[in-house]
Amino acid sequence: MSHTQTALITGAGRRFGFELAKALLAENYRVFAHYNTSRAGIDELEQLGAVGVQADLTDHQAVLKLIAQVQAKTERLDLLVNNASVFVQNPAVDADPAMLAAMFQVHVQAPYTLITQLRPQLEASDNALVVNITDIYTDSPSTDYIAYCAAKSGLANLTLSFAKELAPKIRVNGIQPGPILFLPEHDSEHRQKVLAETPLEVEGGLQPMIQTVRFLRDNPFVTGEFIKIDGGRALNI
């Protein structure tokens, strides 16, 4: 079976990356599903036809190896989604200098390298799109996640720069998620507080994120744009 389009998704083993990969596979995409340590979701994606590619995004050589693996298997890349993330509070960053470095390696350095090195494959597409997953806190940072917010803001700035640099062949946009899917460690008190601060008062789920990727893909006149998928929560932070 010939594939209609090709995508690379970082952090595809769980949550949004996993569900987006499944959705694209159902649309007959060839999907390169990146992961670091967790293979649970990747095994399922491979059974559906995805190509699992492992890399520690804090390791520049590993990122280059990942790129080489993709380039060896496809001459064209239609969609690159920089979704992989490191999300920890200030104390964990303060306790370990490597964690501070990882914030910027995963959110800024790796996306920069992926976009620049995969440019030839993206330019071979008739509708090349890069989607960078940032955060509503890039505009109004949380003091509990200072390094995370700074790194995501760096990714947002990269989005704008590459949108200018890579036009007209490649479009580059960002999605700013809010409370789409709580983490297992979020207790009921935290969830209730967040939903009380969210005008639409619900946990969004992952489908609105997937729908936004499709919108960005299917609308050829959008680049350098950020779309908040947050139920309006950015209005209250």
From TrEMBL:
Pfam families: adh_short. One of its GO terms (molecular function) is dihydrofolate reductase activity. It comes from the Bacteria. GO terms for biological process: one-carbon metabolic process. InterPro entries: NAD(P)-bd_dom_sf, Sc_DH/Rdtase_CS, SDR_fam. Its EC number is 1.5.1.3, 1.5.1.50. Keywords: NADP, One-carbon metabolism, Oxidoreductase. It catalyses: 7,8-dihydromonapterin + NADPH + H(+) = 5,6,7,8-tetrahydromonapterin + NADP(+); (6S)-5,6,7,8-tetrahydrofolate + NADP(+) = 7,8-dihydrofolate + NADPH + H(+). PANTHER family: DIHYDROMONAPTERIN REDUCTASE, OXIDOREDUCTASE, SHORT-CHAIN DEHYDROGENASE/REDUCTASE FAMILY (AFU_ORTHOLOGUE AFUA_5G02870). Belongs to the short-chain dehydrogenases/reductases (SDR) family. FolM subfamily. Catalyzes the reduction of dihydromonapterin to tetrahydromonapterin. Also has lower activity with dihydrofolate. This is Dihydromonapterin reductase. It comes from Pseudidiomarina atlantica.
